[in-house]
Amino acid sequence: MGKAAIVILLALILIALVVLIVVLLRRRSGAPAPAPAPAVPAVPRDPFAAEDQVAGDPRALKAGDMVEYLGTRYFVRGSLRLKEGGFTWSEHLLDADTIEGTKVWISVEEDPDLEVVWWTEHEIGDLRPGDKSIVVDGVEYRRDEHGTADYTSEGTTGVGVQGRVEYVDYEGPGGRYLSFEQYGGGQWEAGLGERVPTGSMTIYPGGS
Question: What is the pTM of this model?
Answer without folding.
Answer: 0.71
